[in-house]
Amino acid sequence: MDLLDHIEKTSKSALEINKDNLKRIVSDCSLSAFGRDHGFDSVHSPQDYISAVDAGCYGSHAPYIEKYLSGDETALTAYTVNCNLLSSGSSGSRKRFLLTDEALRRYSSYWYEVPFRLQKQRERKEFHVGAYRKGEGVHNDTILSAAFYWNLKNNGTLREENIAGGYPFMFVDGLESMLYLKARLFLSCEDLSAIISNYLYDLTVFFAYIRDNFDMLCDDIRKRDFSVPVSEHMRKAVESLPHPDEKRLMAFRDVFFEDKDIRTVFPSLGFVSGIGGSVYRRHTQSLRRILHDTPVYYYTYASSECKMGVPISFDRSEYILLADTAFYEFADLKENRIIPMEDLREGMSVSPVVTTFSGLYRYVVNDELKITGFHNQSPLFTVEGRVDDIINLAGEKLGASVFQDAMGILSERTGVIFTDYALAFDFSSTPACYRVYVEAPGQKEIQKLSSSLHSILQELDSEYEDVCRFSLLAPPRFCLLEEGTLRAMRTSLFKGGHNKASFILRQDEAEYLAAKENS
């Protein structure tokens, strides 16, 4: 069955599928250590299950994960474990989750195939920004995107002839010099139907690398040389690529330095994909300088815990819940209670509580979702950010998504394009204020934006307005950075895991930028 037809069919019976998922998980995993400890053999309804298992986060699962890692293969689940997923966690502490063959089967090829089906593309040539290693170490540790694409390769869904450069540029032994190799590949492509990235932020980094190293890359192409260390295997792969002529290289220069539409070099480009939307709005704005009105597909809503949604249209970061991937409940963030899927209503702010086919039971995912409507029985939602992403300098408790909305409105009202930005607290005077670091090419004086952002934040958030009314917060202070400074900072201070590029600065990041200001 076509994936779009499958999404349509499951959306019509999403509530029944959700309950059936729970029955199957409880039945299949009743003899796991977790199932025995929680009396799964006595669970006959969702109400029984809720009584038997408390909702929780990683801590309630960690002892069972440790048992599995110590050799108890049925500690958490009866399903065959494919690999272990490493996550840096929102707190920066490393977490390890199991990923089973059953979960991968249910994840299907949604986030890869759906945009092609929406555009009914038959002739495909895809450029993948990411490169993926096999699992490493005794526990076969990897990340979700790598496990997903290796699975598609192994089951024949991901066809080598559709991939720019073929498998050698996508499935690799190591990531050394990979940006360089991907850039050489990109500049050799004669046409593309899709550019696929895990995060739109990854694509901004990739395009910035090409722009920053364009002359070196062109010189190497002309001389058929390599300015960075490259394995013999990859050297041969690069040498087998089409060789762009001077006219072609100058056309790329116009795209990266004159903001020409990327479809002047790739006329068949149907879409660009990557995780983005309201949480990553600044990345989409930055990419528009190159993409212009090329459709953007916002890829997927997924995490190491579970793959939960995909968009069903372009240029909208609205997702449909995939009913067949887990048993879903939701934490109502306003009422502070957990509700069943059938109690969701448009406009609610919730966090998913998932019971998965990979051994998570009533696991609270600390993301804030806003229910925007329904497609048949399946909820539609946007991702507003992390529940614990709160900006609280003077008691305002401003949601991170509110600040991002304010920056988007500021850009729309003033015409200033922020290609990147970051936020720190400034205690250098009383009252304190937000210190907003921005990259805004072509701008020289941005302090005039301070009062505008201050007013917008008060329009959007009553608690921010109240704090300002009592003179507890001064207007934000802006600091203009050279383009690429924030990217260099994140690269320099990257601590491992997924680099999701939060705009709220850690202490070491704030100190890094303060030193740049003072130097």
Task: Report on the architecture of this protein.
The mean pLDDT is 90. The chain has helices spanning 3-12, 14-28, 33-37, 46-52, 58-69, 101-107, 110-119, 144-154, 178-188, 200-212, 214-223, 232-239, 246-257, 281-291, 400-414, 449-460, 462-469, 485-493, 507-518, and strands spanning 81-87, 95-100, 126-128, 141-142, 194-199, 271-275, 296-297, 301-302, 307-310, 319-321, 326-332, 337-340, 349-356, 363-364, 367-375, 378-386, 390-391, 398-399, 420-426, 433-439, 477-480. Helix 10 packs across helix 14. It has 519 residues and is an alpha+beta fold. It contains 19 helices and 21 strands. It starts with a helix and ends with a helix.
Helix content: 25-40%
Number of helices: 19
Strand content: 15-25%
The parts where pLDDT drops under 50 for at least 5 residues are none
Amino- and carboxy-terminal Cα gap: 61 Å
- From the spread of the alpha carbons, the general shape counts as globular
Rg estimate, integer Å: 24 Å
Backbone structural class: alpha+beta
Strand count, sense and closure of the main sheet?
A: 9 strands, antiparallel
- Please, what is the average pLDDT? 90
> How many strand segments?
21
Structure at a glance:
By secondary structure, this protein is α+β, with helices and mostly antiparallel strands. About 40% of the residues lie in helices and about 20% in strands.
Annotate the secondary structure layout.
Layout: H1 3-12, H2 14-28, H3 33-37, H4 46-52, H5 58-69, E1 81-87, E2 95-100, H6 101-107, H7 110-119, E3 126-128, E4 141-142, H8 144-154, H9 178-188, E5 194-199, H10 200-212, H11 214-223, H12 232-239, H13 246-257, E6 271-275, H14 281-291, E7 296-297, E8 301-302, E9 307-310, E10 319-321, E11 326-332, E12 337-340, E13 349-356, E14 363-364, E15 367-375, E16 378-386, E17 390-391, E18 398-399, H15 400-414, E19 420-426, E20 433-439, H16 449-460, H17 462-469, E21 477-480, H18 485-493, H19 507-518
Parallel strand pairs: 1-4, 3-5, 5-6, 6-7, 20-21
Antiparallel strand pairs: 1-2, 8-9, 9-10, 10-16, 11-12, 11-13, 13-14, 13-15, 15-16, 17-18, 19-20
Helix pairs in contact: 10-14, 15-16, 16-17, 18-19
